[in-house]
User: What shape does this take?
Amino acid sequence: MSELSVEHLLGIKYLKPNDIDVIFKTADHFKEVINRPIKKVPSLRDITIANLFFENSTRTKLSFELAEKRLSADVINFSANQSSVKKGETLIDTVNNILAMKVDIVVMRHGNVGAGVFLSKHVNAKIINAGDGTHEHPTQALLDSYSIREKLGTVKGKKIVIIGDVLHSRVALSNIFALQLQGAEVKVCGPTTLIPKYISSLGVQVETDLKKALEWCDVANVLRVQHERMDIKYFPSTREYTQLFGINQEILDNLGKKIVIMHPGPINRGVEITSDVADSNDSIILNQVENGVAVRMAVIYLLAQQIKR
Assistant: This one.
């Protein structure tokens, strides 16, 4: 099996196209494993992994934990809410104390942009970025691309529109990098207040008309409006947002073609997407969840192979 060109998974922008191929081929193998009656392999019996979540998470944390246990790794879970961070301990001290327990890989979600990069320069362990601020969420982008590849056969040449709160979304930025790396065309769609000013410098077009965006695309990746990251009002009301950018079955029926619907979760049903769309045959939202475990198993496995015993 080929190796990754990187020592950590800090962001998609550090990866090469071959890295994505290697991760996906490895994930194919692990997807077959997790669909067996016995869903475990002894690959990482001698590896200890610490999950450090300084921000709340349900799906990502559970997905990583399940991936680690499927690989037979020893797992330590750390939540900042119940830690000495609350008493003023620094990030490096916190992590070094955990590493003193002979931890090999750290999976970290942190509110500060670049926290994973900072950590990788100061501690002796493999770092996997499980989301840093509004910056990147590399494993989510990988599982999204993997799910598109599974549904459509390839990502190359496909037209993907990312709809919603792009400004506050680490998923959007990682997806843009990953999709472009694989030869897809990417547009973003949403209120102009929720589209970052720098987006055109990434080679991404902006479409403010939802109907036009959906007519153009093969895949719509719908994002949640992240109210918890907003310190000002970015649009008049949730009702108005839904009228302009919410996706319902009637809109899809009028397109005259089938498109694939994705969502990284959690879904605000009835806001950015209705239940009939989220639960329809065109939706691959639950496939994304299943593929998340296989893709994270692949990333963890590939980084663990680099650890010198």
User: Anything to note?
Assistant: The radius of gyration is 19 Å.
